[in-house]
Amino acid sequence: MHYASESTKLTFEMQVIICYSGKMPKKPSPKRRSECPLNASLEMLGDRWSLLIIRDLMLRGFRTYKEFLGSDEGIATNILADRLKKLETCGIITTEREPLDRRKLIYRLTAKGIDLAPVLMELVVWAARYEDTGAPPALIRKMQKNREQFLAEVRQRWVEKAAGSILPGDRTP
Question: What mean pLDDT is reported for the chain?
Answer without folding.
Answer: 82
